[in-house]
Amino acid sequence: MENLDFFKDYSTTAVEMVIAYAPKFLLALVVLFIGLRIINFIVSIIGKQFSKTKIDETLKPFITNLLSWLLKIMLFISVASMVGIETTSFVAILGAAGLAVGLALQGTLSNFAGGILLLLFRPYKVGDLVETQGRLGEVREIQIFTTILATPDNKMAIIPNGPIMNGEIVNYTALGKIRVDLVMGISYGADIRKAKEVLLQVMNAHPKVLKDPAPFVGVSELGDSAVNLAVRPHADPADYWDVYFDIYEQGKIALDDHNIEIPFPQVDVHMKN
């Protein structure tokens, strides 16, 4: 009899719990189903809007996926509270876990945030010639955590995005033209006007030197053993190194052809009895 009474009490309690929780559980399932459909609809609409904007292609799927997961987490927490699950401690655990992960990965998160800012503000794009973190090179990839540069000596430089966003970025491509800064020294006995004329002829004859702005030559310094001339051609960023090396070489040859001396460093010593 005692077993029968226990079974009756257990059955009664189970029926009462089903009656009490079944509507909440069914309502929670309905809310979960409808909520997932709404989230998918919202993410789809945002994705289509991104397709019409100039946001970087690398950033679009990341933002939509992040938004989808955030909305789904909020939905699951709401559904859990509807069926009577205490969510306060659950949210606290999530917050503590997030804090612990954030402290453990603070360097990585800094690079992640830097990558997002780079993709949003676009201080440079793939193909630009940039200088950052002591490296000069062409941008090959902009990833979420790193930027990949191809340096002039054909090396691949992988630079974390966090330091890039917190440091100086020089974009040589952004303005469409780049000035090539060269210095050539001539002897104090040489004709400065003739040297300038020769170097201007060399730059004007070069096919990759731009006519606008016009090339420029001027005295930049009276050095210890030479008059230093600032030689300033302009070029397209892609032609920078061709112009740099060609003008140095052709300029030296042209100065030699006109007997304009490029002196070695020298020191005058005066003897006293």
Distinctive features:
273 residues, alpha+beta, Helix Hairpins, SH3 type barrels, Alpha-Beta Plaits, 3 domains, three-stranded antiparallel β-sheet, 53% helix
Q: What can you see in these coordinates?
A:
With 273 residues, this protein is α+β, with helices and mostly antiparallel strands. The protein folds into three domains: 2-104, Helix Hairpins (Orthogonal Bundle); 123-171, SH3 type barrels (Roll); 178-257, Alpha-Beta Plaits (2-Layer Sandwich). It is built from seven helices and ten strands. It has helices spanning 2-51, 59-82, 88-104, 106-121, 161-166, 192-205, 240-257; strands at residues 129-132, 135-142, 146-150, 156-160, 169-171, 178-179, 182-186, 216-222, 227-232, 234-235. The strands form three sheets. The protein has a five-stranded antiparallel β-sheet with strand order 4-3-2-1-5. It has a three-stranded antiparallel β-sheet with strand order 7-9-8, covered by helices on one side. Helix 1 (2-51) packs antiparallel against helix 2 and helix 6 (192-205) packs across helix 7 (240-257). It is elongated and about 125 Å long. The model has no long low-confidence stretch (mean pLDDT 80).
